[in-house]
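Justification of computing resources. Each target in the renewal requires a structure prediction run like the one illustrated here; the chain below, 649 residues long, is used simply to show the kind of job we budget for.
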Amino acid sequence: MNEMVIDRAGPRVDSTIEKAKTALLALQREDGHWVFELEADATIPSEYILLVHYLGEKPDLTLEAKIGNYLRRVQGAHGGWPLFHNGAFDISATVKAYFALKMIGDDINAPHMVRAREAILAHGGAAHANVFTRILLALYGQLSWKNVPTIPVELILVPRWFPIHLWKMSYWARTVLVPLLVLAAKKPLARNPRKIGVDELFAPGRRTPPGRAPHQSRAWYAFFHTLDKVLKVVEPYWPSRLHQRAIDACVAFVTERLNGEDGLGAIYPAMVNSVMMFDLLGYPANHPDRAIARRSVEKLLVVKEDEAYCQPCVSPVWDTALACHALMETREGDTSEKVVRGLEWLKTRQVLDVKGDWVDEKPNVRPGGWAFQYNNAHYPDLDDTAVVVMALDRARDSIAPQADYGEAIARGREWVEGLQSRNGGWGAFDADNSYHYLNNIPFADHGALLDPPTEDVTGRCIGMLAQLGEAPDSPRMKEAIAYLERVQMKDGSWFGRWGVNYIYGTWSVLAGLNAAKVDPQTPMIRRAADWLVSIQNGDGGWGEDCASYKLDYAGYEQSVSTASQTAWALLALMAAGDVNHPAVARGIRYLQDTQDEHGLWPQEEYTGGGFPRVFYLRYHGYPKFFPLWAVARYRNLTQSNSRAVAYGL
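Resulting structure tokens:
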């Protein structure tokens, strides 16, 4: 076993690292940051096409053709469109893709359209799509608003103690919902100059919604469904002055958070809803608020020679911080200057002056976090903040001892500490966002209305605190570790909310526990490490499918190996003290054997989490920096006297 390790940490490992490092450095932007494509499913490019026609804008025919090429390419063998590469049929994505292709001129009798239509009808027709798709169909006059859950605009005025309140929802739900409240109140109709409809997607006599979602309890659903019926009856009788006051409050909310050309919430659905809201309220196209909201959407487009698609958001802070970690792991002097440039860019992105929506739960905490996107001051997140702080601290400890990172690190740490939830864990954007009954309202058929503490973010925050010197027996660390002990799965893994899935969660937690100096021989860590070894594929890699996000997890299901998930498993095992385990050597060999001629790794699979069971992400940067990180760490540990990982990530 030791001979294998020594051989694999020799010249071939050096070559693997050198090629990957060179390729990653070549992708750095002029100002020091990295940003890679962030791809979701067919839904968002389809919605982009439909937005243009909703507004009655003159379409860019070349762009439409390129988006059409993209949509046809990613159509599944089942006839519909999946939520991730090679995934199962999804009716909502399929309805939108079909509608968009028909809008740009695809013949409904073309084979790909026939297959899509037949698949939709076989699954109950377009009325069985999710709430957001049914709202889009209502905006186009294809479905009655009676078949959409009632969300009264007056919701924005209810007091904080009210059970259904915007600040009891996640940031993404809040930013998407507020402009949508105005749309639902006024029920506009798309301009739709081409007069395209999709009546053929509805099964005869079946235009009613699908009913209770699988995650919703019968009792809660019955209550909220009854409430929805009552709201539909009383909606026309809301006092007009109260109605207008609520609309004005929605506009004020959106305007305060427009976020320049980065858009409302810096996420596509919220940005598009803000554009439609301004349009509905009569704002001309050249009005500053509407114009900047519209430009924010255009900035999400990825246009290539033959194809184009629209991203759900962009990930420069996340990509830059992780790329810096990977490059620092190489410990090679020619990377230092470029890493420092990346860190200096990150430093300028810290949110220090804006008390975002998180202040509703934690009013006495000073801002100090980082957002995921270029700018999103109202919505920094704990995950990015922890990763950036660890990178700054690591650089201060190694490649940039004279750097002025002290205040940035201190403010970031203060913000993370302040947003710990009562159960000991951390959510992504808010503290104690755990009002689980809200996922039973009809609007929440996606089951993603909340941002409760999760294992992966908690592992990251523990790692950051421990790297900065927090004692393992401090109250906050003890509470966090106890939380992780409580939520560990029976097979030894941890759930991964923001990455797919149990491999990602297990890596995040083991990295944090290692930094916190939890004994690697404790049952909690040994069970996790044994689980990772047990699920290694025969080719030496690791893989996990997005379909692993089930309501009732029954254990790991084998999937094809991917570069990023293999890297996570390797980093996890090394954090658990198992660098000399044969499984690690096999994993390193897998990465060596699959590196391409450019020094990077191919990966079409989606390994990023958006919303479990609803929305997934393909981070194009993941196979560019995670494998480099894992191989470089392997070299460092096998060539040093210590086998301990020194950092929290």
